[in-house]
Amino acid sequence: MKTIEAHFPEKLRFLSKPAPYKVLYGGRGGAKSWGIARQLLIDGVDRPLRTLCARETMNSIADSVHALLEDQIASLNLGGHYEVQKTAIIGRNGSQFAFAGLKHNIGQIKSYEGFDRAWVEEAHNVSRSSWQILIPTIRKEGSEVWVSFNPELATDDTYVRFVLNPPPGSVVVKMSWRDNPWLSDKFMADLNHMKAVNPEEYDHVYEGLCTQTIEGAIYAKEFRLVDQECRICKVPYSPEKPVSTFWDIGDRYTSIWFVQAFPFEYRVIDYLQEEAVAISHYQKELQNRPYVYAAHNLPWDAKMPQLSTGKSIEEQMRSAGFRVNIVPKMGLVDGINAVREMFPRLWFDGERCADGIQGLRHYRWAPEGTLGTEKKQPIHDWASHPADALRYLAVGIKTPQLTDKPPSKPTYYQQRVTAWS
What we know:
Blueprint: E1 21-26, H1 32-46, E2 50-55, H2 66-75, E3 82-84, E4 89-91, E5 96-101, H3 106-110, E6 117-120, H4 128-137, E7 144-149, H5 157-164, E8 170-175, H6 185-197, H7 199-205, H8 220-228, E9 232-233, E10 243-249, E11 253-262, E12 265-275, H9 279-288, E13 293-299, H10 313-319, E14 324-327, H11 332-342, E15 346-349, H12 354-362, H13 384-398
Helix pairs in contact: 1-2, 6-7, 11-13, 12-13
C-alpha cells in the first residue's frame, strides 16, 4: 500500500463528502473535469466503486472521459491499481469505470442499475428524457450523480434541473478560472485577449454565464418572440381535431413532431425521437398514443427502397394501414425561411416537446469556411434532426397534400349540335 498525494482547488473539497447530487458548472479553466476524475479515481482505490461515465451522445470511446481518466491515473501514479482497457477501466479491488452515451440507449443505461456513481460530463445538452432515464437508474443506497458542464442557454434542461431547481441534498458549485491555481501563461493570454476584444463572449466562455442565444442560432429571433409571448406552455390534445405528424428520417435518428392545425395557429402537442430502430417501432409508438391521425408526412427520401426489406418507408407505412403524405424536396435555405414564416403561429407543449425545443434552440449555422463550402450551411448534429422535421412541417403546409389514393380518371361529356354546312 502507498499514500496518494493529490492536490485540488479549494472549491472541490466537497467532492470527498457524501451527497446525492454533486454539480459543478461554470466557465472554462475551472478544473472541473480533471478534479472530478481525480476524486473518482481516489475513491475507487479506497473502496470498490462502479462508476458510469456518461455523455448525451457517445459515438466512440474517444468521445468519453476515458483519456482524461487515463491521464489522471498516470498523474497520480495509480498504474499499479488500475488496468486501462480499450473501453473500460478496472481496479484491482473491483472498482470499475464504464462509458456510455445517454441519448436513446434506454436498455443500456438501465443495465447500470446498481452502480455507485454516475458522472455526466459536458452535461449542458443532456435532454430531459435522458435525465428521466438515468436518475431513476442510479438509485442504489448511497449512490451519487455527479454533473459537470459549461452552461449555454438558461432554458437548457440541465441548467434548469440542477442550477435553478436543484434536487434535495444537492451540492451545486460554480467555478471559474479564478479557482484554479495552476493556469498557464498561454491560458491567461487567451483569456485576456477575449476579454478585451469580445467581453460578451468572454463572460460566457470564461465566467460561465448563460448566453441569450447560441452563436449562429438559426431561430434565435423566432424564439425570442416565442418566449415573450409565452408560446411554450401546456398545450393539451384536442380530440375534436386530427393530429398530423411530420418526420425527419436520418441515418441514425428519426424525429417526429405531432401537430394539430387550428385557425391561425399550429399546436405542437408532442415530439418523438429515437435512434437506430425499425419502422415497426415508430408504428407501435404512434398506435400507443391517444391521438386520431390525419396523415403522417414523410420526407421525400421515404420513397427510396430499403436494402433490408426491399420496400420504402412509405410502402411499409401504407401497408400497415397508415395514411401517408410525401413532403416534396425543397432547398435547405428555402425550407428554413418557410419555418420562419410559420413560427409566429406555433405553440409548443413545454413538457412533451422539451427535447425537440432544446434541439431547435441549438440549431445553428456553421462558422464560415468550416464545412468546406462557400454556401452558408447549418451544422449537422443532434439539433438538426428536430429542426429538419419542423422544416418538413413548414414545407408540407405550403404545398398541396398528396393522398393515399391515385386521382380518379378525368371525365368528360359530349354535346351534339346541328350546324349549316
